[in-house]
Amino acid sequence: MGLRKNPNNMSQKIFIKTFGCQMNEYDSNRIFDSVKKIGFDKTEHYEDANCYLLNTCHIRDKAKEKVYHEIGRVKKKFRSKKKPLVIIAGCVAQAENEEMLKREPYIDLVIGPQSYHKINDTILNHIEKNKKKEETEFDATSKFEYLSKIKNEAGKVSSFLTIQEGCDKFCHFCVVPYTRGPEYSRPFNQILDEAKYLADNGAKEIILLGQNVNAYNNEGYRLSDLILSIEKLTEIKRVRYTTSHPKDMTKDLLEVYKISKKLTPLVHLPVQSGSNKILKLMNRKHTIEEYLSTFDKLKEINSRIEFSSDFIIGYPGEEDQDFEDTYNLIKRIKFINSFSFIFSPRPGTVAENLDLIEKKISVERLEKIQTILFENQIQMNKSLEDKVLDVLVENLTEDKSKAFGRSEYMTPVIFNGKKSDIGKIVQVRIKDYSRYTLFGEIITNLNQKVA
Ligand code: SAM
Ligand code: SF4
Ligand code: F3S
Fold first, then answer.
1. Residue 228: is its pLDDT beyond 50?
2. Alpha carbons 36 and 110: distance in angstroms, whole number
């Protein structure tokens, strides 16, 4: 690590563009932590870069084609300049591997999500020998051993920390088991060390990440153990985790909600559909009754807990009644902060070649779902008018005139804060709202705190 020198003396600038989930964001930050060791600085302007890295997502739509279009744009921009080193990372890289080098000669390196421990050597080999290369082995152990030796320099008030990678669930619609490999849980102490380093360097909130974060299991340590250990760090004010699978909402995890002081009250628990028939067709491995039982138990433990979710609309076989079931579930649970998508057939998955339902019907259903999710969110935000919320201040707004933070439910809050508020939890009285954002005024006198 860091032993080999970059033979180019000139300054190297990397531009990293990230698509997809928070795990890709974490990876992009860690890739930068790594390439810094071989002399790269970051640039926010891709036309200034001599290394262009695209961290890709394969979850929906024409993911692969989007990558080639993006490379087409880079090509154009650099037509009259020296070509940058072009690296494709992430889930499309994993799925397509050497095909990408064949189809688009402008691409130099293809590196999958579990090969990032090789990124420095791969780049240096390319600089020295001008050799194209594809690295797409699944080797999560080496990835995280390597990354744990390089400090996580995210330096953000709210920092991501990947604890688990990959998936063994094989939902019939999903590419993740193929792009991220089998389920792997990082060693408990390796994670705690990273959490301590983040806390010592300004993090106040840690968001534990995994494709199935609540399946975390390393030598008997579970997600519940990690939450309780991390919240002992005094600098850390809030702990969150995402994304969970309903089947892994184990008793110990539910119990944590009784004793934890810092776990936030928003549970992101994707349900995908409200119909048992569709859940079975999707191979989701749980029923709506089990999901509702988890919801009821958590509500009983703490009535302030709210749920958010992901929904797939128009899965093959979804009939009017199945859709009604999803709609009614949303009404029953009053999900907030949720995501909904029309089913998108993915290459290599069981659902790839199933008969699609009519596009028009899917679009209509999606609109209905999004309308009710919108209403839930607006109602939630409206109910907060004139209330005082605890807001963890993350930054100033772009024009620096206000401060930006988040409520315990992840909702962005903009208010008249200052730079010195960054990293603190402050009390803000909510004065106005939109669907996505709350607007308020900071108060010093805390008499009317929301319980
Ligand atoms: N592991 C999580 C779980 O079990 O719910 C989800 C991870 S996936 C990265 C994020 C979301 O993408 C899923 O919850 C699902 O709603 C959506 N998604 C995955 N595959 C999809 C597909 N083929 N079409 C539409 N949406 C999809
Ligand atoms: Fe995909 Fe299902 Fe695994 Fe989630 S649990 S990552 S939806 S296969
Ligand atoms: Fe996309 Fe891969 Fe995440 S497919 S959602 S970047 S795990």
1. yes
2. 19
